[in-house]
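$ fold --in a.seq
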Amino acid sequence: MTAAADRIAATIAAEIACKPAQVGAAVALLDEGATVPFIARYRKEATGGLDDTQLRTLEERLAYLRELEARRATVLDSIREQGKLTDELEGKIAAAVTKAELEDLYLPYRPKRRTKAEIARERGLGPLAEAILADRSVVPAELAAGFVTDQVPDAKAALEGARDILAETFAENADLVGSLRGYLKGKAVLRARVVEGKAEEGAKFSDYFDHAEPWAKAPSHRALAMLRGRNEGFLSVDIEVDAEDASPVKPVERMIANAYRIAIPGKAADTWLLEVARWAWRVKISLHLSLDLMTELRERAEEEAIHVFARNLKDLLLAAPAGSRATMGLDPGIRTGVKVAVVDGTGKVLDTATVYPFQPRNDVQGAMAELAHLIRKHRVELVAIGNGTASRETDRLASEIIAAMPAPKPIKVVVSEAGASVYSASAAASAELPGLDVSLRGAVSIARRLQDPLAELVKIDPKSIGVGQYQHDVDQGRLARALDAVVEDAVNAVGVDLNTASASLLARVSGLGASLAEAIIAHRDAEGPFRTRKQLLKVARLGPRTFELCAGFLRIPNGEEPLDASAVHPEAYGLAQRIVAACGRDLRALMGDSRALRSLDPAVFVDDRFGLPTVKDILAELEKPGRDPRPEFKTAAFKEGVEEIKDLVPGMRLEGTVTNVANFGAFVDIGVHQDGLVHVSQLADRFVKDPREVVKAGDVVHVRVIEVDVKRKRIALSMRSDDGTRPQRERQQPSASRPAPRHSPSPKPPAQSEGALAAALREAMKRK
């Protein structure tokens, strides 16, 4: 490894709590084209067992640190070409651990346009600046008189030139700037004010019309809210330091003075130099550092917002599937009617219809008759109802139909329809459902996302699913990369049925992409279902390297090779066969036999190629072949008679589903078309720092209404006990005796233009 590579490995190792050799091995695999899911699952011996979370952090930091190293090399070459590179400077550059530190060191040597300081030097004023700085016994005005020339008309002009030279010197002192940056990070205040004349128009930012808080502690959601207000022209946002300090010399000015041994109070030269220090701070250094801190604030806020989005998305993608059961999807609508789609256990569309039980047609009887007919005809077991407009009305209609049917009755479940309209108009939907009207595709998506949320949600741009925190205010490229990583990890954690998966799902499998996914489906359509994983090698453009990366994540239930239905990689089939032989059993008979498999000593099967981690993984997979890491399917029951926000009363106890988790609390769907907010302070009878310690998206929870603002569509909820003795934070599940359970596995789109997160944020701020 090179010195730069060693430095990168050591840095990342310290950050993810492992050894540099583990980082080096993971980096080598990534550079060879291996994916994070593949490395995490099938190369544990090489990396020492780094998990997908560590590997994702490693991958992200690797990109940053390689950019840093490339910039370091450029800086060194530039300074070396100028003939100004000293051993001391080279050592400082080599020790810089951030881009900001590196740029501070490079600043004096960076090629730049002519500055006032450079002009002053050209006019011969460099010696004047040096003399005043070197000898405090001089009187600057008297000394400056000796530098009057044709280009420097008087002593005042000479001193201004000397000031420009020294101010630039102060501003380019990397050690000093670094110290000042550190001081600001600890002491700076983020100040927001309303722009004059914009109070009424920017009322949604009223919480920040006169707001101040420590820069270091500003949480992501408030920082992004203020920055949005500034970008929209309603707020001014500034970095302030020592604004309340009334001392004659501010701490930042004293830091500059101390760096150059300027006495306070001192002689005439010291007094003049102190004014230069003040001027340098005001005109040069503070502007530069304020921009740095504002940039860092945005990056920090974006990183946290992206992290929140990614965690919520992961929870939704890995939500419990209802399973392979015939399902009716209902996409509610009033004037345009309720769109209906029935799909079989594999998601294949069996029937569609549109019924008009609401105004203006009010054909209730016709709608009920048609829905009952479709349920009986296709033996529907689940009814998935979209949670948008007319959802509760459609739910009541379905309840009446189901109540009148003989057992076994289908179960009705309310699901999020966020992104369904995006999918309906997408190229993926057109390819999957070419003969189906766009208006009916949403009903198909609603039905399928109840059967298998992961398989359906991968078809939708993650940003359209609606679980982000100020998602439109963050770096969209970085957000997309983070969300793509989450989707990739989720898909590969669950595994994919090679013979039923859509192109969208296959495209997320390790090593594949859109092109190869289409090629696999084309081969499947032409040649029939895959009987073995090895047949993948017959797919056009799918070579041995791609096969290595993808095969372990693709499943073939009931194929010719039993191991093809498991997560055991084909490269380890020989090892698996050795384990089976040791039991003296047929493979199919052994799979699932916990007692026999747990009686084996994993260490016996370790060899030169496969270590203990792989052996243990194979034993676990044989014990539960093709196990699904997702939880058991559970549902929530909305309270009858509570259908609109005006039906809510403080003190009312309800059951609901967590739709979104932000840093300031959790949003819960309680069936009134507007999510309620459980502020972080109301999540439990104890202090909660991170809401995800208590809840995650998809959890079924019991809440108590504590405040309702019908006009502003705000609902404040609590999961705390009434008296602090009986907690309400358990993830309770409805009992078997409850009628017609309902479910909302993913969040609703905001009901108002500003978005549910933005609306609830202001409410949350008032409660802090």
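$ fold --in b.seq
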Amino acid sequence: MDFDQLMKAEKNREYIYSMRPVFNRNALFSDTTGDYVIPAEPNPYSKITIKFRAGLNNVDRVFLVHKGERHLMLKAEYSESFDYFACEMEVEDEEFTYHFEIQVGKIVCIYDVRGVAKEAIQEYAFRIIPGFHTPKWAKGAVIYQIYVDRFYNGDPSNDVLTSEYEYIGDKTVRVEDWNKYPAVMGVREFYGGDLQGVLNKMDYLQELGVDVIYFNPLFVSPSNHKYDIQDYDYIDPHIGKIVSDEGNLLDHSQHENRFATRYIDRVTNKKNLDASNELFAKVVEEAHKRGMKIILDGVFNHCGSFNKWMDRERIYENAQGYEKGAFICWDSPYRDYFQFYNEYTWPYNSSYDGWWGHDTLPKLNYEKSKELMDYVLKIAAKWVSPPYNADGWRLDVAADLGHSPEFNHNFWKEFRKAVREANPDAIVLAEHYGSPRDWLNGKEWDTVMNYDAFMEPVTWFLTGMQKHSDDYRGDLYGNADSFIGAMRHHMSSFTTPSLQVAMNELSNHDHSRFLTRTNKKVGRTNTLGPQAADEGVNKAVMREAVVIQMTWPGAPTIYYGDEAGVCGFTDPDNRRTYPWGHEDLELIQFHREMIRIHKENAEILTGSLKYVTNDYNIIGYGRFSRKAAVVVIVNNNDHEVTREVCIWPLGIPRECVVKRLMFTTWEGYTTEPEEYQVAAGKVKVYLPATSAIVLKYASLDESFQVKADPE
């Protein structure tokens, strides 16, 4: 090239730069959803295409940075507003991490899961795990959590009877008043809910829009919560089926359960146990007929002192067909299932290791017993296999299992393998507090109950309350920056396959009901009384929370009765009965409408997330794909606001109309459609006090053009 040609080229470049719009950081976008990683869940040793979006003719170069190496991305296609850069990469059988580097003149910036950043931090790199697939049915699935004893009594003949046996210092109580508040020490109170009750209410669940039923533990257990399992092989006849009902209750002066012969017959007689398992299989079959899945609760860190392997209560000591428990004698086949501190106190050795010191919860000692581990892995496979065919497990206190991190991780790898070999489409999700990153590696858990990246940020922002109602934080109430910061940070622990199936709850059996948190009362039922949980609640804030829940990445999970207006402080008050006959019908219908919106818009199930506005007590975000976009704006203030929100970064045309899907306010809600004009990429919305709006644009420009001459 001679001097004249060089000068001409330089002048042409200067002209192009002078005509180019100012660098628009808001146009930059990428994530690991299916629009930007193709295929979204790649296999090991395969090629993938990774894409990055920038404003039209707005950046010079984009690099994908992997293991310190920069890979130039080529402009592959463009639309009216954006350029799309792409590059092909090869993945192996290990986690693939990367971020982007964008160059505009002398400006250089980083883009990772935080968005635009000054420097790369590995913790916030985009992550892909080759070979990691989560079940398609679970992505965005609407889950309904049922605490069986409190849902519906369909078969009074199987109810736990008053004085049937003794547990933690007193005898069992059959509660006659379904609407009674749970007692402070209510572990031995039984209201009579059962699996027949779930069968009787299947129409209700289907009409609500439920995709998945998650059951709190169903196996034989002496408590109403059943996290102290007595027999992993059988469904508890008290929630299943009792066909043999012989023996006596405990009399007033008797406190030893070896004399609770009515209870012993009910829970050890194989006729009752087999009939109960058959009833569970019927529940699963009925759910599957209706297009619903079933998730079981697995408690494998510890069992209960009633457990047939331990038998501290001497229930199985003389029962036909059972081996002696480890508590009973030294030569029990189950002795190594537990850790005993005193080897010289048999018979009836009570010196065993209990989880957190609780002698009612013996910790299982897997490291010392391969037989125990093999047995539990068979249990894992049994319940997701015919004839039961459950669709997965929720794992209680999963990070606590075992006596070392190394064993814990090895156990869950074997557990996942056993479950997936038995049922390739089953899900494995865990209860976990704190970062789950170490377990969400594609070989252990699929996902978690999403406390850090959903329940807590939503609760702090909308109510200022801690999830147990144990504290109020005025600095977090309405703090949109904190909300977004917490979400970005904690969501970085998930890869997209895990995030899309994460259990997004507002309430559950371990925390106060969300509706109660809206009254901002700090306390529990033993300090304030259960009535205080019902006082001063704000249904408008509850509706805001449900709007977020039904439009956020993950699987929205409804704790039974939340949709009907059930209140309650933390355990045991959160375990009130479902209020059949005096439900909040308006709140139920609102849930139905939000579930419908959730399920009808694919971009909510598997699309991208981008924030579009935030202020004190105000958040706005979009869920979008290359085909459609949903905009959600929440005003949690006690006064009205009018906002002009920039929504073109969601791919919505700068001049168009968006339609309203939902509008909830202090007074109520409406799904009446209304059109909002988008001008210069912004939409102007009026938001009354304590309101939320959901808008939709359904005709994004699909006429993306392939760039014939990239660069």
